[in-house]
Write a structure and sequence with these properties.
It is built from 15 helices and 19 strands. The protein has helices spanning about 10-20, 60-70, 75-85, 85-95, 125-140, 205-215, 240-245, 265-275, 290-295, 300-310, 365-375, 390-405, 410-425, 430-445, 460-485; strands spanning about 1-5, 25-30, 45-50, 110, 120, 145, 150-160, 160-170, 175-185, 220, 225-230, 250, 280-285, 320-325, 330, 345, 350, 510-515, 520-525. The strands form four sheets. Strands 1, 2, 6, 7, 8, 9 and 16 form a seven-stranded mixed sheet that branches. It has a five-stranded mixed sheet with strand order 17-15-10-18-19, with helices on one face. A four-stranded antiparallel sheet has the order 11-14-13-12. Helix 2 (about 60-70) crosses helix 3 (about 75-85), helix 13 (about 410-425) packs parallel to helix 15 and helix 14 (about 430-445) packs antiparallel against helix 15. The two termini are about 35 Å apart. Bound molecules: flavin-adenine dinucleotide.
Amino acid sequence: MYDVVVIGSGAAGLTAALEAKEQGFSVLVISKNYPTFSQSCQAQGGINAILDESNDSIDDFVSDTFIASRKISNKKRIRKFCELSKDSILWLNKLGVPFTRDENNNIAQRRFGGTSKKRTCYSSDYTGLKIINTLYDTCVKNDIEFLHEEFLLDIAVENGVANAVITLNINKMKVSKYPTSNIILATGGYSNIFSLNTTNSYLTTADGLAIAYKNKAKLSNLEFVQFHPTVLKETNILISESARGEGGYLLDKNSNRFIDELKTRDEVAREVYKRVVKGEEVFLDLRHLGEEKIDELLPQERTIALNFANTDILNEPLSIGVAAHYTMGGILVDENMQTTIKNLYAIGECAQASIHGANRLGGNSLLEVIGLSREVVKSFNKDKIVCNIDIKKYQKEIDELMHKEIKVDFYKVKEQLSQILFEKASIIKSNSSLNEVLEFINEQKNNLKYMGIEDKSTYYNRNLVDFYEFKNLLLISELYIKSAISRNESRGSHYKLDYEYEDESFEKETIIENQDNDAFIYFEEIK
Ligand SMILES: Cc1cc2nc3c(=O)[nH]c(=O)nc-3n(C[C@H](O)[C@H](O)[C@H](O)COP(=O)(O)OP(=O)(O)OC[C@H]3O[C@@H](n4cnc5c(N)ncnc54)[C@H](O)[C@@H]3O)c2cc1C
């Protein structure tokens, strides 16, 4: 039995695993994929920190983060988060992350939207990749055990205490249980509810949120989904915020700038979206930065534009669009990253830690996954636990799926879900459009009995995993829509045409409780 089982090998999972091992706990990391496939690997722009207090201050960092959150966050927790930033960067630096340096050989910083200072540390525009490579290398060096291609099916909760994880080995199609006194969910966000319009990889499918909710952990703030204002049109490949941070312009169809490019993402994305839905082209113009700056600071963006849009950003503006990028909502956690289930923790993008509120600042997510994930270890349960869960029912469910006749193709439904969500429930919505989506979701919940898997093979059955992921996405889509219907105002990334202004009575966090498999949604004061 391990002291700690971490689910997920993105930056959050690897960081928590390293810290737990360092503190003497035995650790197992379970992940449905390899670390280099994680979402964290794709982070480009950087990670925020106050390195030199003579140039910048914790107070300013707290204030920028709080303002961006539109008051839906906890200032005390933001302060702690900001105070952890310097140590987080120095820790990564010590492990060997090759941060870009300035002319004095100090760690260089760039400016991101919504911030008052240059605060974002980076490794050219491959920051996430360099961080993951370094963290994974260190895990391997420290003999941390991994189970890759192992899919979390469920957690066992007895008398309100989590005591085991139940997984499916994707290669062998075998169900197993891993009892432990500390389970950490580090399973990433839920942007794939917009699977046709997201910058996220196909694995960001809300599994952790869905499993936590089914076991009656509270979720929170699901209506807050951040759309990125600069993705390559038609491909959804991210063009990093560093492009605007380094001075890029946004141009409309008449080549006019239409917004201050360094405003927060919600505002910029809304302005881009308004033009895109009218069928107008929007461009990111980097030509004035010049070849030297582009090749030094934005090499990946230049390559992406060349390879995927046949555009050389040295000479031409780049046609862009918007896509779901980051999910501020998640599993509700307290200041120790504990969920509302004992011995169950959530870290990284799957958690709602009362930091980002209605709008996350670029560079703050990587800081959360490093800074707060190192902290989680402090409140671990040191007692041994007993686990009585019988896992036969999971194998039986899979066996039944193998024999089930299929009348509805869930892959098609997943696409339809993404389409209707983007059209009626994305950047700009209203209660009537949200209700249309809810009707569609309810129909598909009824249709689940006709859905299943075509591929009956007993090894590496991707079809089976896709089906589990789809069911998780459908559930979280429903909770996203119900949360959005409940919040009758516009705030940050949540913008409703029928309630276009912030309403003080909604200066609260949204709480979602599972009551007899029905979502009970209410609002709680920010403490
Ligand atoms: C293109 C892009 C660029 C970005 N750039 C930046 C940036 O510059 N700065 C910044 O601060 N943020 C950035 N972000 C956001 C940031 O990268 C993510 O929020 C962060 O990396 C999330 O880390 P995580 O460890 O929580 O989750 P992830 O990195 O998403 O990892 C989740 C892990 O959970 C595993 N998992 C999920 N479900 C299961 C299951 N059922 N069973 C087993 N394992 C499971 C996955 O395999 C994976 O290993 C960017 C995001 C994107 C999409």
